[in-house]
Every structure is written in structure tokens, then in C-alpha cells.
Amino acid sequence: MVMVTHHHADTLEASLAGVQRLVPRPERVVVVDNASTDGSAAVAMRFDGRLPLTVLESDENTGFTGGFNRALREGAADWVLSLNPDCAPAPDFVDRLLAAAGAGRRPVGSATGRLVRGDGPDLVPRPVLDAAGMIVLPSGRHLDRGAGEPDDGRYMEPAWVFGGTGAATLYRRQALEDAAYPGGEVMAESFFAYREDAELAWRLQWRGWECLYEPTAAAVHARGLRPEAGRSGRRRINRHSVRNRFLLRWHCADGGWHRACFPWWLVRDLAVVGACFSVEPTSLPALAEVWSSRADAASRRRWVLGRATVSSRRIQRWFRRKGWVEAVESG
Description:
- The protein has about 325 residues and is an alpha+beta fold.
- The strands form three sheets. Strands 4, 5, 6, 7, 10, 11, 12 and 13 form an eight-stranded mixed sheet that branches. Strands 1-2-3 form a three-stranded parallel sheet. A two-stranded antiparallel ribbon has the order 8-9.
- It has twelve helices and 13 strands.
- Mean pLDDT is about 95; it is low at about 225-235.
- The protein folds into two domains: about 1-225, Spore Coat Polysaccharide Biosynthesis Protein SpsA, Chain A; about 230-310, no CATH class.
- Helix 6 packs parallel to helix 7 (about 235-250) and helix 7 (about 235-250) runs parallel beside helix 10 (about 285-290).
- It is globular, with a radius of gyration of 19 Å.
């Protein structure tokens, strides 16, 4: 299991307590603390002896992507659970995902469960959904299915989805290594944070690794950034988000995708750029960052598309119908 922390001392204990209750017990738990000043590393160290724990402290914040890649290099398990420090899994979370992933014939690269919102340092669950798998839209947007909706029994069928949220997704290590950039870079470190799980999901899809949503695998997620809450008051985050939404496509979208999803992506692009020049000028530097990253992005795109094992049409179908998922029974 890998976890990246940055000022998460308030929820980290509840999260690791959830990890401690997992059955089967994780072979190794690697926590990377990204230069927190709130004592996050010390909170993690309380679980030394209670978990097969390794805490790696960083002198600088390398973002979720840098921390994830560093943690991944520390372990060699066949499956890797990515868990946010504000997320607590149910004791059978991994067991149910493993059982679902092994039940079918399709190449499962990742599996994700049904997340509900949690409150407070104890991550007390609320009757509100947080994620039921990742879906994508013709505009290129990616969304956590069900986010902010009532937890009233919806999304209770297993399904193939585009990807899983980095908050709590189980990845097959073979798939991660197969989709990694040269040098073993699994998460694109140019992203730093935000949308990196969607970029990885798209790369996995190009390599034929699919994502399975299993609703009986449950977890609680506090989620500091809630889509329904809007974008106000989050300057640094918004800047990363704007930059990465363009990099996501530059890394993973081919010409067939742009033709199939036109004009929705263009309308969305114009709206985002317009907002940067009007209501959100603090995100303007993100556009310059995108431009300065064009050579790296082009290199990554050549790598991704040059290793594709599925057709462009198969990728396009995830985007061409709003909120599309595929029932497990059809596979």
C-alpha cells in the first residue's frame, strides 16, 4: 500500500487505523510525507510495529505524483493500493476488489470501490457518495461518478469504468509497470498533483488494462476538494487543475479522439481560457506553463500512442456517451 501525505495529521490516524484493520493484512505500507509541518510523519510513525510500515520523509513537496512514484519503488507486491491520507477503507475493501478482479477474463489493471463522504478527524461516514468509478465526457472532462449524490442505494452494480480515483484504487503492479513512462515513471511527475489519476487511467486504457468498479468494496473519504463546491478560494489548486487538464489531452489524446469529440472539447477549452482572462486571472500562469511543457508533452504523447494495443475507436467510446460505463455481465 502507498500513501502520500502533505499536512494531513488530522485524518491520518483514522486512515491508517483503517489500513490496520484490512484483511488480508498489507505486505507493506509505505507512507511518503511531503515536507509537512503539522506532524504528519510523527502521526504515521505511531503505527510502526502495528503495520509493516515504512515512513519516508521528504525535504520538499514533490507533489502526489513524485511521492507516489517514490513509494512505489519501495515495494514489490503484485497489487498496490493507492490510498489518500483522508480515506479509510472497510476491512474487506482489498479482499473484495481482489476477488472481483480475479473473477473475470478481461485484463483488470485496476479496481476501485464505492466511496462515501466522511467528516472530521475520525472520518465519520455521511450518507453522501464520493465516487463510484471515474467517467469521462466528450469535452475531455473526467468525473467521479456519483460525487455529491445521496447514498441511497444507487450505483450498486459492478461495472467497467474508465478509471479509479487515486483516493482509493487497487492497481495491478504489472499494469503500472507496463504503462509507465521510460525510467519507470508511473505517475506523470509533470502533473505534480490533480488529474494525475485520470492521466494514468487513460494510459492504462491505451495498453488494454481495464478498470473494474466493485460496489461492495467500501471506503470513507473526507475529500478536501469537492466538485460541487466550485472553484473559489483555491488559487494554487486551480492553477494546477487548469494546467493539467490541457496536459492530460496532450499526453493521451490522438487525432481520432479530437475528431470524434469535436466540438465539445473546443467549447470547453474556450470556456476555460476565457475564465482565466476574466473571473480567474490567478490561473493565467497555468496557460504559460502548458506552453512551456509542449516539448515534454509531445514526447510523452508519442510514447503513449506508439505503444497503444487497442484501437482509437475503443478509447473514443468512453467519451462519446455521457457518463458511459459498461456492465460487467456484457464482458
